[in-house]
Each structure stands twice: as C-alpha cells, then as structure tokens.
Design a protein that fits this description.
The protein has 284 residues and is mainly alpha-helical. The chain has 2 domains: 13-92, no CATH class; 99-284, Hypothetical protein af1432 (Orthogonal Bundle), CATH 1.10.3210.10. It contains 16 helices and no strands.
Length: 284
C-alpha cells in the first residue's frame, strides 16, 4: 500500500529538512539587531550561492540600470525577503538527486518549474505585489511533490503515468486513482515539514484546486494560472502530457484585466529565455 504524503516526505531523507542556507538566513533575519550586512555575511559564506544570486539579480528578471556586484548591494537594492526567497529557490534546485531518469528528464522538469515561477512572478507584478519573489518561489516549487513521488514510489508513479496516457486523464487525476493522493498534496506535505509560510503550503498544495485556498487565494491562483501558461507555452515538462484545466474563478481572483493576457505571455517568454540560461545551470 502506498505511503501517505507525510510518510513519503519523511522517507526522503536528503530533502526532509529545508536548505541549510535558508535556515541560517531566517535566524539572522529574525534577530532583532541584524541588518543587511549580517544577511550579506551569511550569503558570502557560500561562494557558489553568492555567484548564482548575483547572476540572477543582474538578469532580465530585474533589469536594474546598474550592475549589482556584492551581496550587501543585492540585499539593499532587492530587499531582504526577496534575497532570502531567491536564495531558497536556487538552493532547492540542487537538492533533488536520485530521481529515476526513465520517469522524468530533470532539465525539462526544472524548465517547466522555472517557467511556472516566472509566470507567477509576472502575474504578481501586474498586481503590484510587494514581494513578487515569493510568487516566483511558490511557482518554482509547485511540482516538487512529483519528484518525491518519483523517488519514493517509482513503480506506482510509472503506473499512474501509463494510465494517464492510455486513458487521456490529467496526470494528477491518475495519481489520485493509483496512489490515493496527488503530487500537489505531497508538495504541500513538504512545505509543512519544512515549516514554510502558509502561502507556500497553499500555493503548492492546491495548485490544481485553487478554490481550496482559504488564506492565500491570490498566491495559489497565480501559481495555478502560471502552471497552465508554462504547459501551454511548452516550456519544459514535469511529466504531464495534457495542459491542466483553468479553474473557474482563478483569473478573477487575480483581478487582472483578461485583455492583458497576451502581454503577460510575452513577458513570461522574454524573462524565461534570459533566466533559463542563468538559472538552469544550477540544477544541471
């Protein structure tokens, strides 16, 4: 009998705890006397992370008029919460190893995840949200539950993928039939295990059911819509072969003029093309 989502997460020892750098950053950020220099010092302890962050903040995702050359400058210009979330995103991408190659192409998986993250970020930008990076991270993480299923329940995952193709079902529907739960629920369990903010728990756990998000409907709807855009634009794949259905009310929840949809799609493609080359090297 397949294990529960929480059992799957706990069984994946290498990812049962959040990235160490995220934990360190949270300790410093939560300290009443810490400042941008202290946060930059933690980032500087990991030269690889520092390099990745600087490449990202100097990309088209931000399009700053001046080059940002130090962690301190990045924290000052981009913001504490934003840098923390970007550090989290780039660190998570290095954590998932040992995923069966016959089940998923990891580069294609991260391409899809990155496109979803950028899509959620663009949608948040049109809403003029304060920290669009939390939308980016939520989108980037939305399908990590599928990787855990692939790692922990490879045989059942294979059956679900075959059933999805043969019956023309959405993969998350086949997962529910075969496993008794979906990858979204596993991802939500991981966010709970990592003690992540509620916005991540709902956006990841309910990205196929945005109507179930009671506290963070905007974040969840953004990831839901961004997932559809990433699939429709064919920017990578996490294993699904059908574009998920747009849930009625998700776009209305975002409060964005539907006529802006073509502009949003252009923004996603433009930012994706620049960011993919920079960020995907992290997960290679």
């Amino acid at each position: 009998m397949p294990r529960s989502p929480s059992e799957l997460v706990k069984g994946a020892v290498t990812i049962s705890s959040p990235p160490l750098i995220y934990q360190r950053l949270m300790e410093v950020i939560n300290h009443p006397r810490s400042g941008s220099a202290d946060i930059a010092r933690v980032l500087s302890e990991d030269t690889g992370l520092t390099t990745r962050l600087l490449r990202i903040v100097n990309s088209a995702l931000f399009s700053f008029p001046q080059r940002i050359s130090t962690p301190t400058h990045a924290v000052t210009i981009v913001g504490t919460a934003q840098v923390r979330d970007l550090a989290l995103a780039t660190s998570v991408m290095t954590m998932f190893t040992g995923v069966p190659k016959e089940l998923v192409d990891m580069e294609s998986f991260w391409r899809h995840s990155l496109a979803c993250g950028i899509g959620a970020r663009v949608l948040a930008g049109h809403r003029r949200e304060d920290n669009v990076e939390r939308f980016f991270v939520a989108g980037l993480l939305h399908d990590v539950g599928r990787l855990i299923v692939f790692m922990q329940e490879a045989d059942a995952a294979t059956v679900a993928m075959r059933q999805s193709r043969e019956k023309g079902e959405f993969l998350h529907e086949s997962e529910l039939d075969v496993l008794g739960y979906t990858h979204a629920q596993v991802g939500g369990a991981l966010m709970h295990q990592w003690n992540f903010p509620g916005a991540f728990k709902e956006a990841v756990g309910y990205h196929h059911q945005p109507q179930r998000a009671s506290r963070f409907p905007v974040e969840t709807s953004a990831v839901h819509v961004a997932d559809l855009m990433a699939n429709a634009l064919e920017l990578g794949s996490s294993g699904a072969h059908k574009v998920p259905e747009l849930h009625e009310g998700a776009w209305d929840t975002l409060g964005i003029d539907p006529e802006l949809a073509p502009i949003i799609l252009e923004d996603v493609e433009r930012q994706y093309m620049d960011a993919a080359q920079i960020i995907l090297g992290i997960a290679a």
